[in-house]
Design the sequence.
């Protein structure tokens, strides 16, 4: 198969570099364009900043020249790791010019015509692109993946909603510092400390799952009627968000075993289509009494799975559990990449 | 005033040393006995282990000889920092022999005849001692303070229960490593990690506030009818437990301001009696959007206050907030010491 | 005694706030001016940034209005916590206008007419101010304290140089993140990591002790002939620099005991003059086999002492040891304050 | 090629599990025996303890039954990850019974008849086994790899000794917590802290390179005449030891470039023989001004290389540099495995 040339917008940041690392020897895609802000434009990627992922920057990227991101390039598919404020107008410019933009930014998630997509959760929402193109008159388009905290929560939420009818979710997160990018969180704020606020995060987590679990009709997406209450904290962890959930259901499972079975048996299109980045098991359930833990479980299924543990009764809602996922892999670049793979596998993108 | 001679049981551990440090130049008490397990007995305190609090061990303690804790000593008041398994029979032996035991251990908290005491919350529960003595025939007695996580939660719970009638509390904690003592949590378990389980902790947090907020009648304590759901996590923080709470009320406050006012205005007997270790304000409310934080707020009011922040609506229960307190000061040794000060100030203990 | 009004330049930063906290209820000084960059000027201190030291900003400072630092204020003594680039011209402007500037910045340390002062080490160097005023025609003047890493090394160096004639020092530091200010070191750079470079630091550490231990003559300071080799690292510690030293002497001590005695017996003018911020023992020697340690020893003598441990033979030079000191107290604001106290006590500054 | 059955002694510990993980699908070896202390014997590996490396224990090991380590098993080659005290007699028992023991323990390193081996450094020392067998009358034998800190230092020391004649090395280490095993370092000792002592470590580091760089003659090994001074510290890093070295030479290189060239060009038998675990480049030299760093460079060459950076003049000795290596891979299990691969490739072990 001839590879599809792709670009990475915001290629010098933390998530941009994650996109690059995931695109090394990718079976569908080949990076031909790297773009970033004016500050980096004209430099090589190696000159523009260190390889945050560890070790030396892979040689195939080190010598690529960074293009200015506001100058639309000659490539039909781009991954966007832009900061949200820059992402708004820039992604539209690329979409207008014919590119399909797979965005990790928050700028367009609330647009009712932009799919907020997790392939295991709402693969049919890609069809919203039709409405988007009609309405905006773009030859390209924009697809987003949700916030990292939402992404890992919505996988088990999908499985449990299907099985038992989810009605309420109370979620408290303990989020990794990599979620704030680089330089991001000052060390004086987080060593021997917890920061019980991540600006704008709770609003995203309380709303995004409603769109993700919503129903696509002729008029667009009808939100799922699930009430979510979120409290988001930053902790001294490099990668991996831990989330404590209490859940209420329309038809609660009879016991923990029934709930766990619904999680373990959950499979979806990415697994059926055997997408290159898809985890074999999108939801893992750990047997360990004190699991999951970020350092020990974040790399499960190459960082593309959500690991669940500590399923037990909740005295207030129905059940409690803990979940854990890699925030810059499945929670960011990996999630966006999986979205693009889904569209290729469905024949919606061609080389 | 002539000082009351006191002993510290478990004087070589983390909490034992906190007792010692708080008893330096104490206006009511003077340490005359230090006791610990067989392993340390006969050594001086300096030989028995390093001063965990920092710097050199204060000279007045360094040369004291450790007595075996299972051999009842000649002192009428002891503070117990024993591990729970040792605390059970040992504290009873001291109580039988006439000592008033102020225990930080969990062993007797569930005994319906043992007061579980926080002076701002249920000072009248000291009267349970009468029933205890009658029933067990002890000339001394046992009083306990709650688990560190409960202690800091129950202060605002008291204020809010009085004002609005508390019905439900969903609590997620991020607890400091000092809560597990020394050596305690292995560094390989907690650096770049979160451990989403603290054995036995959730059971304590879900039950202790019911006893603390209960009513003492002729038959003993009638538990408060509050439903609590807890999820307890360990994080890489030295001192200071952070707790995210969602709360439901019988008569919810009209807005955040009303809830905050109830917290700010809360005062109780320790403040009226001007107890030496009492905080001027047992509950502080921070104005900072990203507060409270353990490293920045744990030492407020010499570690004896609970700091509350981020009061806001909860889409599922009524309100959400974050609270923070020092787990080895107010949450352990300081809490127990305040209990003893309360009894002295009330004339129930004499020099 | 009537208090001397003082200003703090760079009052909104980490070191500036340390100056403020040390000046609360100071017996000699009273803060009447707080100045900072344009960005903060006109705001109150509380508006200009959070109180990094912990808890709430003391009320006496919270409402003070920040003055622009480049506009010379009406005060005869200022402490400067400015960043080095801004410090250069700004401190000169204040000195010209008649203020005595006690600077923690690096800008003027290399000026042969500016004293680099540690009161226990070279108190006579204050006399260099005469030459400085003559030469530059300033009515005020500039005095600096050394870099934090130098400060803690030079205290034992002075004691050992006096006793045994120091010739070589090989020094490897493990420095706290607070040394880089706020926001300073990104958490992604330091959690689960070591950064083996602190820009410009090694040059300072290899040179400053030569000036500090030098001899003031009619022509200025003649540097001490000591060869220093430094390697400076950043580690995940909040406060407290740890330094491993190997030392060579003209007349090596016969054994460890002789070296330790020279450290323990060291006293100097700040102790004789009983300066308010002076430690009783400027050099402490710990008995603990695994000491000193930053979290456990940094607060010794209110952060104003250097703690030494692990004195032993070096197979290459003569002896090895470890030392530890608080980098933002004695190593920065506290050191500068002690310099000012020295001049007051010597009658060189009057109210 | 038929695989050689091997055993792992101390299979339940940190280093034991690293051996197991490196032996998954190994081209030469197949694990048929796992042994540990009485406490674990009879259990399955999964029952005996959690998989410290992360995620779930590989299924091929989970169900293996742990044998008691003091009962010699039916296998001709074992890797020993035993604690040093247990390793002494136990490894001798296995050697007597005919097994070739590749030991990571310190017990026999000082035995003049036991090779202390790093394949790039002293591959000819395997021949010492002949003398060992003759003298002790064992049908098997014992080979050791050095301490983790020595291992990473001795690779560049070999290259530089060959090129310039090394005479003195002053080494200060900042070592990872995984080096102390599990539970190992208490978190209260290392978060926001440095511990400037690792018991016994400095003695090892000052002596082992002399044996490693020594010459094997008819009478055994003549130590290299290099004087080493070590200071070893523990820091809050999970994996990866950082070491600051100052070096003196008989024939110092003319400049940094000449020294770097000697490191870059260094190759040895493992590379020539293309051993399965051998790094392509045993010594990497980073271009980054602030490298190497443990979290960013420890995994270079699958954790089997030493990365060097910051090469510069030393004012006291000749040159300074920083080096970094993975302490539980090349520094422990990986180093021992490479020793065994060397002997297979040389035809000294047969299936």
Sequence:
């Amino acid at each position: 198969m001839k590879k599809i040339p792709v670009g990475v917008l915001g290629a010098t940041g933390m998530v941009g570099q994650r996109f690059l690392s995931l695109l090394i020897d990718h079976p569908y895609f080949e990076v031909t364009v790297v773009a970033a802000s004016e500050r980096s434009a004209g430099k090589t990627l190696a000159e523009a900043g260190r390889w945050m992922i560890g070790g030396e920057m892979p040689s195939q990227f080190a010598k690529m020249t960074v293009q200015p991101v506001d100058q639309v390039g000659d490539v039909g598919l781009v991954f966007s790791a832009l900061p949200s404020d820059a992402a708004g107008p820039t992604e539209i410019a690329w979409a207008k010019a014919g590119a399909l933009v797979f965005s990790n930014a928050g700028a367009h998630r609330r647009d009712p015509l932009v799919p907020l997509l997790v392939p295991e959760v709402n693969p049919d929402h890609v069809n919203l692109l039709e409405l988007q193109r009609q309405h905006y008159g773009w030859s390209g388009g924009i697809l987003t993946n949700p916030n990292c905290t939402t992404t890992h929560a919505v996988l088990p939420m999908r499985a449990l909603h299907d099985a038992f009818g989810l009605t309420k979710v109370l979620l408290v997160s303990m989020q990794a510092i990599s979620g704030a990018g680089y330089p991001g969180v000052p060390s004086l704020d987080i060593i021997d400390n917890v920061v019980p606020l991540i600006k704008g995060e709770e609003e995203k987590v309380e709303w995004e799952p409603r769109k993700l679990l919503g129903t696509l009709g002729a008029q667009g997406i009808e939100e799922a009627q699930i009430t979510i209450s979120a409290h988001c904290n930053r902790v001294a962890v490099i990668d991996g968000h831990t989330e404590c959930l209490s859940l209420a259901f329309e038809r609660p499972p009879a016991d923990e075993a029934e709930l766990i079975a619904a999680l373990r048996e959950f499979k979806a299109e990415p697994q059926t289509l055997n997408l290159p980045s898809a985890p074999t098991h999108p939801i893992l359930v750990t047997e360990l009494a004190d699991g999951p833990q970020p350092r020990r479980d974040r790399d499960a299924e190459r960082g593309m799975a959500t690991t669940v543990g500590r399923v037990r009764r909740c005295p207030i809602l129905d059940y409690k559990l803990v979940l854990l996922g890699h925030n810059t892999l499945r929670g960011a670049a990996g999630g966006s990449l999986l979205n693009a793979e889904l569209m290729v596998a469905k024949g919606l993108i061609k080389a």
Remarks:
- Chain B has two domains: 4-146+333-345, 148-326.
